[in-house]
Design a protein that fits this description.
It is a single chain. By secondary structure, the protein is mostly helical. About 60% of the residues lie in helices and about 0% in strands. The chain has 14 helices and no strands. The chain starts with 7 loop residues before the first helix and ends with a helix.
Length: about 300
């Protein structure tokens, strides 16, 4: 590692102070910009790298400092030290935004590789799981999972989107959602944020059928609040009317998944936000279901 980047910045990224973390992320990014600019002057790219490659720097387009930094930031996502996850994910997000020469697919592959559970330790499993979650959100918040008009048109003409990075990230979030109960709500909320950014027609054609396969054949009474939350948000993107399962007459079947949402106490589980939005979104048309749903819920308490 060259001495051009102050290594103390990585310690500052772990600070419990928001301002210290944010400043460290900005200073680190600015330092890397200078080093990368110098590298661009001397480096000649002899060939174009395979866009499907999982290698982070196959043609040497990235300076050594940037490669080192990305790997250290990814490893830092698994740290439970003070504000480390927030600081390292912020710095990773800024790096992904700032250096378009760095492709997102190899960064995602690096997240999966470096944050593998290598020992039978519940603590390591927890730290790596949350690290992967923060890594997925860094990719999303950097804008790297968004579809351009050209990409969207190309994807719509394909029979499958399984090779698209956004799809792969959503698969990983689904795995995290199902793996541990303490990670389920955060992984589901992240998944919902990402799927809302997928172009609507593309979502309806490819992503919605894939998501619906996750709860196909599952009785509502056997669902957890996270699966209900995911189902509500999937249906909201695909239909303009309120799904039949949240009509007041069907309130009984919502009892079980909503009952388990109390595990989030004293917070309000995100599923309630989604449910209330569904029940009130037709209010402007004079067709708000919330009063009827609320009245039924009081007569037949959840």
């Amino acid at each position: 590692m060259a001495a051009t980047v102050d290594l103390d910045l990585f310690w500052q990224l772990s600070s419990a102070d928001d301002k210290v973390r944010s400043n460290a992320a900005v200073v680190l990014t600015e330092a890397l910009q200078k080093v990368q600019a110098e590298h661009n002057v001397t480096h000649v790219n002899a060939k174009s790298a395979d866009s499907d490659s999982d290698e982070l720097n196959p043609d040497g387009d990235l300076c050594d400092d940037l490669v080192y930094t990305i790997k250290r930031l990814v490893r830092g996502l698994a740290s439970s030290r003070e504000g480390a996850r927030h600081g390292f994910s912020l710095a990773l997000t800024l790096a992904l935004r700032t250096f378009p020469v760095m492709r997102a697919k190899p960064v995602f592959a690096l997240i999966l590789e470096l944050l593998q559970v290598k020992a039978e330790s519940k603590q390591e499993e927890k730290e790596c799981g949350f690290g992967r979650l923060f890594g997925c959100m860094a990719l999303f918040q950097s804008g790297r999972l968004q579809f351009s008009k050209e990409e969207s048109a190309r994807a719509e003409s394909e029979s499958s989107c399984e090779q698209v990075l956004c799809w792969k990230v959503m698969e990983e979030l689904l795995r995290l959602m199902k793996s541990k109960s303490f990670m389920a709500e955060a992984a589901t909320h992240s998944l919902i944020l990402i799927m809302k950014a997928v172009p609507k027609e593309l979502f309806r054609k490819h992503f919605a059928p894939f998501l619906r396969s996750q709860w196909k054949g599952t009785a509502m009474s056997d669902m957890g609040p996270e699966m209900l939350d995911l189902m509500l948000n999937t249906d909201m993107r695909c239909v303009d009317t309120c799904p039949s399962y949240v009509q007041p007459r069907n309130i009984k079947q919502l009892v079980e998944p909503l009952k388990f949402s109390t595990s989030a106490h004293p917070r309000i589980h995100h599923v309630w936000e989604s449910l209330i939005f569904v029940l009130t979104r037709e209010e402007s048309k004079g067709d708000c279901l919330f009063p009827d749903f609320s009245a039924d819920a009081r007569r037949k308490p959840l």
